[in-house]
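Why should sequence recovery work at all? Because a backbone constrains its sequence more than one might expect. Tight turns favour small or flexible residues, buried strands favour hydrophobic ones, and helices have their own preferences. The token representation captures these environments compactly. In the example below, the structure is given first.
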């Protein structure tokens, strides 16, 4: 298992995706969004008439599902049974069902395996909910981004392409998902041990990216000095 990864965990709309992509760009690493794989599996389950209920995600259904990857720029795209779900990943139906699907232990096992495989031969920035705690517990660099629920709802509302939902509606959906993600028994959202916690509520993307880059380069500098000694 590669430990040479940078993990970025945190709740919905804490800034993970934008920050992870920028850090990967700056360091010339690949970017892996684990949430996109949970969303892709959910999308495929919905297409097959499996509606969120945990018990209906069978072992056979998951076993038969082929997950492959494609590199677009420096970001990994996950294909399910040969298809890239594209913008459907961000649909309301997928958003409403994904936390239930992600709570199924067999689903988590499959995703964890795919993530470890995707990061096996390339250095990567991997973002999600359990990346520093479960998927890459020995990662050299771990970060946890957070922000108040109101600020996260404001951000998600601003980037939303669904004109009918107001900020309060977005806040409610986001809090429901946060609650499910933090209270499930299989790999709940948690601050991984050894992670640097960054509250992004009042910070710009640039300053979050800078904080991560300096923490990574400080550590690399220290390692170099120790080698010279
Ligand atoms: O973009 P946003 O933070 O709203 O969500 P996402 O990263 O696309 O993740 C969607 C959902 O997948 C989360 O709400 C979790 O239920 C699940 N997930 C997870 O359980 N573990 C991960 N490592 C990543 C996502």
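From this structural description, the recovered sequence reads:
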């Amino acid at each position: 298992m590669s430990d040479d990864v940078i993990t970025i965990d945190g709740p919905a709309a804490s800034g993970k995706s934008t920050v992870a992509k920028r850090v990967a760009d700056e360091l010339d690493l690949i970017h892996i969004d684990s949430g996109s794989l949970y969303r892709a599996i959910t999308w495929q389950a919905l297409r097959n008439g499996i509606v969120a209920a945990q018990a209906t995600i069978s072992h056979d259904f998951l076993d038969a599902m082929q997950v492959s990857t494609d590199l677009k720029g420096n970001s990994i795209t996950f294909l399910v049974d040969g298809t890239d779900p594209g913008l459907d990943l961000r649909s309301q139906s997928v958003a409403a069902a994904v936390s239930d699907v992600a709570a199924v232990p067999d689903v988590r096992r499959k995703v964890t395996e795919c993530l470890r495989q995707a990061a096996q031969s390339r250095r990567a920035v991997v973002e999600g909910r359990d990346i520093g705690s479960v998927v890459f517990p020995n990662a050299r660099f771990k970060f946890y981004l957070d922000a108040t629920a109101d600020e996260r709802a404001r951000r998600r509302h601003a980037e939303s392409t669904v004109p009918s939902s107001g900020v309060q509606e977005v806040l409610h959906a986001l809090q429901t998902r946060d609650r499910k993600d933090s209270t499930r028994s299989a790999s709940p959202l948690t601050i991984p041990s050894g992670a640097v916690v960054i509250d992004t509520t009042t910070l710009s993307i640039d300053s979050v990216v800078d904080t991560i880059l300096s923490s990574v380069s400080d550590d690399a500098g220290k390692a170099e000095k120790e080698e010279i000694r």
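A few observations help interpret the result. The beta strands are 5-9, 30-33, 67-72, 75-80, 124-128, 141-146, 196-199.
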